[in-house]
């Protein structure tokens, strides 16, 4: 196999669901040797989400689990057991990175927090991912993607005018997805610094802060005009003349954005198959694309041609 950028890097992974597990998975994609730690008493909750059946091996059948734990090795250890704690400390002494997204203080109570692991390995980069961050009055709050959509400001902008705010839901879970992307990049930067200085660090990732960061322009707009209120606008967008999704005669939808008024667009799409409507609009210089689902993406030749190899 071709040597990858993080080949030789060792990651001790306590990541769960998307926020933590996908961070370490992307490190594995780049060549890191990732060892996922789970307990029989507390499996990664993704193991039982969307699993195909209840036959033998069900714990490995969830698409969500398999995707966020690709390219990893696994080890079962009880974090509450002294022997399990000893093994984890021994592993940490040989690892470069720890990734975790437990509720705050879980690892500290087990004697496996940053201060303890730093004592056995001063070069360790410890990535702590949580909903509200490691400090502040809300650090112990129970949160899910739905509540993070709300507190970050995303839900207030999502949905249609005069309707309730929309949350992205588990199939998207936007705050989890974006924090794993941010965390991966910052962990790599911390690894470079640790190799330069010989000192590791504690990285405190707040999903709420990262999600709010993506709405920086909304915060600035509110500061400039305190009376301004954000309004949900469905598929419309400021700066575009016409933008929406349209149903075609094969039962599929396409998304279209035009810089000029196209009053006939709905009828145009309704009279054509989605592929034909998309092709004709693109020929006219109008942005158009099919609304793909998972089956479409699986068969997408453009995506199939993109690899890390």
Detailed description of the structure:
Helix content is 36%, strand content 16%. It is of the alpha/beta class. It has two domains: 10-213, Crotonobetainyl-coa:carnitine coa-transferase, domain 1 (Rossmann fold, 3-Layer(aba) Sandwich), CATH 3.40.50.10540; 242-304, no CATH class. The strands form two sheets. A six-stranded parallel β-sheet has the order 3-2-1-4-5-6. Strands 7-8-9 form a three-stranded antiparallel β-sheet. Strand 1 (10-14), helix 1 and strand 2 (33-38) form a beta-alpha-beta unit.
Helical segment count: 13
Estimated radius of gyration: 23 Å
**In angstroms, what separates the terminal alpha carbons?**
9 Å
Strand arrangement within the widest β-sheet reads 3-2-1-4-5-6
Task: Please give the largest β-sheet.
Answer: 6 strands, parallel
- β content, as a range? 15-25%
Reported by name, the CATH topology of the largest domain is Rossmann fold
Level of helix content?
Answer: 25-40%
Please identify, by name, the CATH architecture of the largest domain: 3-Layer(aba) Sandwich
């Amino acid at each position: 196999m071709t040597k990858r950028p993080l080949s030789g890097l060792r990651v001790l992974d306590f990541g769960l669901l998307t926020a933590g597990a996908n961070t370490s998975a992307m490190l594995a994609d780049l060549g890191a040797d990732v060892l996922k730690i789970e307990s029989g008493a507390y499996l990664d909750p993704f193991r039982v989400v969307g699993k195909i059946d209840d036959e033998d091996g069900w714990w490995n059948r969830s698409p969500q689990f398999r995707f966020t734990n690709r390219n990893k090795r696994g080890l079962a250890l009880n974090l509450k057991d002294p022997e399990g704690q000893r093994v984890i400390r021994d592993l940490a002494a040989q690892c470069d990175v720890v990734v975790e997204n437990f509720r705050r203080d879980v690892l500290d109570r087990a004697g496996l927090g940053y201060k303890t692991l730093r004592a056995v390995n001063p070069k360790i980069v410890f990535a702590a991912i949580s909903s509200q961050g490691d400090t502040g009055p809300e650090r112990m709050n129970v949160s899910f993607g739905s509540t993070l959509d709300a507190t970050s400001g995303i839900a207030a902008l999502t949905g249609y005018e005069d309707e309730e705010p929309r949350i992205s839901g588990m199939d998207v879970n936007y705050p989890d997805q974006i924090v794993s992307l941010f965390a991966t990049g910052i962990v790599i930067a911390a690894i470079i610094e640790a190799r330069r200085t010989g000192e590791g660090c504690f990285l405190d990732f707040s999903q709420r802060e990262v999600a709010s960061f993506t709405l920086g322009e909304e915060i600035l707009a509110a500061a400039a005009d305190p009376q301004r209120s954000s309004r949900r606008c469905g598929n419309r967008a400021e700066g575009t003349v016409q933008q929406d999704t349209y149903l075609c005669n094969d039962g599929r939808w396409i998304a279209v954005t035009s810089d000029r008024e196209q009053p006939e667009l709905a009828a145009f799409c309704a009279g054509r198959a989605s592929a034909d409507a998309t092709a004709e609009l693109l020929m006219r210089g109008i942005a158009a694309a099919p609304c793909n689902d998972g089956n479409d993406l699986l068969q997408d030749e453009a995506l199939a041609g993109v690899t890390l190899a």
